[in-house]
Amino acid sequence: MDKQTITIYDVAREASVSMATVSRVVNGNANVKPATRKKVLDVIEKLDYRPNAVARGLASKKTTTVGVIVPDVTNMYFASLARGIDDVATMYKYNIILTNSDSNGEKEINVLNTLLSKQVDGIIFMGNEITDKLRDEFKRTKTPIVFAGSVDEENIYARVNIDYVAAVQEEVKNLIDRGNKRVAFVCGPLEQAINGKYRLKGYKQALKSAGIPYDDKLVFETDDTYKTGTLLQPALMAVNATAAMVTDDELAAGIMNGMSDADVKVPDDFEIITSNDTKLTEMVRPKMSSITQPLYDIGAVAMRLLTKLMHNEPVDEKNVLLPYGLMKRESTK
Amino acid sequence: MDKQTITIYDVAREASVSMATVSRVVNGNANVKPATRKKVLDVIEKLDYRPNAVARGLASKKTTTVGVIVPDVTNMYFASLARGIDDVATMYKYNIILTNSDSNGEKEINVLNTLLSKQVDGIIFMGNEITDKLRDEFKRTKTPIVFAGSVDEENIYARVNIDYVAAVQEEVKNLIDRGNKRVAFVCGPLEQAINGKYRLKGYKQALKSAGIPYDDKLVFETDDTYKTGTLLQPALMAVNATAAMVTDDELAAGIMNGMSDADVKVPDDFEIITSNDTKLTEMVRPKMSSITQPLYDIGAVAMRLLTKLMHNEPVDEKNVLLPYGLMKRESTK
DNA sequence: CAGCAAATTGAAAACGTTTTCACCTAAATC
DNA sequence: GATTTAGGTGAAAACGTTTTCAATTTGCTG
Fold first, then answer.
1. B153 vs B78, B124, B129, B158, B193, CA distance in Å?
2. Which among A265, B6, B57, B229 could disulfide-bond with B63, CB atoms 3.0 to 4.6 Å apart, if both were Cys?
3. What keywords sit in the KW lines (chains A, B) (predicted)?
4. How do the domains of chain A map onto residue ranges?
5. Please, which residues 116-155 of chain B have a Cβ atom closer than 8 Å to chain A?
6. pTM of the full predicted structure?
7. B295 chain-A contacts, CB cut-off 8 A
8. Tell me, which fold does domain B8-51 have in CATH?
């Protein structure tokens, strides 16, 4: 007894109808007489027939599978998006092939190509540094692509984000209004547009509005890890920063713990605001104030958008911006 | 111009060879003359031919895709396993279809069936309560299945875990040796064998060795969430517990923060040990002492095991136990 | 240089569906 | 009751590969 030996043909024979008819009842096609529908259904039940999705995919050119490219599921930010994606994918009868890219351009290209060879019906991409080579690969395919929590400066692809510029600007303004003259900006790689072009822009705008000159000594480009954060305290002190706007929660947690370990009191001596509002913000002490993002929803909306694209439905706005908020907790005064 | 219109047939024609030969070079079959191999390769390059994995799957009955059933990727424990799985899957040229089950029996069955209909070559299952119905579904298929971080009491399926009984026993013994007479056991659902049969057993054994009678008032069955943990302080105090062995890191973090918020000092007034050693343990203050588990490796080894099963290679031991450790941090004396 | 084994190729049959037509029936129209 | 019309149905052709088997070529052996 092999894997799955009962085919549509067996059902057809047993029910004395054609394969076409079996296919119709399996697919809920209306044009089949109730009596024969029942007959076929009974045989399907009796034989325990399960349609082979691969054969179906070949014949119909639809796999009901979408590819999801994510830097690292182990990062709670992305895990939350992924969960939102999977939930609405399931809702629409799709499955997701999940791949970790480590934000590595070469891996991203490889993974994209294997996803395409597997004939996924659509792709959701997360990752913020889109190299020219990757962009070229994107352009080669007709398969719909949407970005989740990732910007597209060239305004080609559908994407869902929050307004990073405005959010950072607002938070940095608050920091300045509270008397901080030297606010550090601690971020992931500046090559990533989300940091280098958007968040940094918000930071600069806030400074400008407040009449504070931009000082690049206050900008700390990191690799977004907790560990790196824990090591940053001396450098931050060295430039006399009294607050930091941080672009990643784990990184921010690292900074905060580094401060505490060096007996710098948060928020009294140093204020910290983070950006992703993962559950980490609540678990850490003091709890971290954060820009709030609807993480799950970003994924969910991205997937919903993708279903529209896959079904050739019109989408009114390619650049969807979900509302953000500002959550004051205990790492700010 | 559609999705991907260049087929193996086009390549064959252009290179004036048969489809069979093209198939051979694509699959690296040795039996093809170097000259014609080069000719074919050139045409492939020129036409930018990409094999259609779906057609390939239908013809070969191998999809190079495995299904992964996980309670929730958003939980760092499972995210880490998933990462390990994906990395070795990639290494062996497999992709993973990732599905969240919320540990819901019905969802697990649905998801299993759609994975099977998609003809995955293997399945990795995470989740600890295996209902009879689910077990029946498992039995219906010849597709190899391995459990990751999940026990199989019936000893049917390959699985990779740590020795939960021994680990818990050891840690609880330490707690007792340090003078704690009343050690609470705070766990997820006891229906889950990993809690109800393994960890609880370790807890009981430790008590017994120390000559302490088992008191079920000290056993707290929860839903494994952070939030629930934060609410547990009063109940724990009410039964005069002075320490707790906790089965989930987020849950433990909740308990610890709940204690701190109620001015119960950890570890001086209350000791806490957790079980999964996710990076959360280091981020929280005080840092949590934990049983250490090689999370990534559990996933990686499970996937490696699955490749063996899929290739019909012999596996020496179906029940693989990876080494655990005990990491003292700051939540214990 | 005949004879045979090994290496290289191609034709065609799977693989298990969906989908396009054409055909047939039974109901509806006049 | 002849003529449409629409609903049901089946035959067979896709879909793009792999794989089997036989045919052809090539290379050796003596």
1. 21, 17, 10, 11, 8
2. B57
3. Activator, DNA-binding, Repressor, Transcription, Transcription regulation
4. 8-51, 65-162+295-324, 164-292
5. 116-119, 141-143
6. 0.93
7. none
8. 434 Repressor (Amino-terminal Domain) (1.10.260)
